Amino acid sequence: MEYTILIYHAEEGGFWAEVPTLPGCYSQGETIEETMGNIKEAIEAHLLALTDEQKEMPTEEEFVIGRVKVEVTAVG
Q1: Which of 1, 6, 59 is nearest to 36 (CA)?
Q2: Considering the domain 1-76 in this protein, what is its CATH number?
Q3: From 5's CA, which of 38, 53, 58, 66 has a CA 20 to 30 Å away?
Q4: Contact, 29 vs 15, CB < 8 A?
Q5: Which one, of 63, 11, 21, lies nearest residue 42 by Cα?
């Protein structure tokens, strides 16, 4: 299985990641590589917990991640 992850710069330094398809599945690391390894472990643990609870494993729906540039102007 493959899951899309989103990686962000952490305010305190390093990075943190989330898995949109698995709500509550997060991890962090000092580098992107460490964060990738840690989120992989978090995903595996999350899926194992779902299996133990006999819950359905979420499959990722196709989605698009994009960026939109917005101009902000003063109101008034």
Answers
A1: 6
A2: 3.30.160.250
A3: 53
A4: yes
A5: 21
What DSSP string describes 9-58? E-TTSSEEEE-TTSTT-EEEESSHHHHHHHHHHHHHHHHHHHHHTTPPPP
Backbone torsion region of residue 71, taken as left when φ is above 0, otherwise alpha when ψ lies between -120 and 50, otherwise beta: beta
> Mind listing the pLDDT tens digit for each residue in 8-36?
999 999 999 999 999 999 999 999 999 99
Distance, in Å, from the CA atom of 66 to the CA atom of 21, rounded to the nearest integer, reads 17
What would the two tokens of residue 66 be?
Answer: 């994009």
- The strand pair at 26-29 and 15-18 is best described as antiparallel
Alpha carbons 59 and 68: distance in angstroms, whole number = 27
Domain residue spans in the chain?
1-76
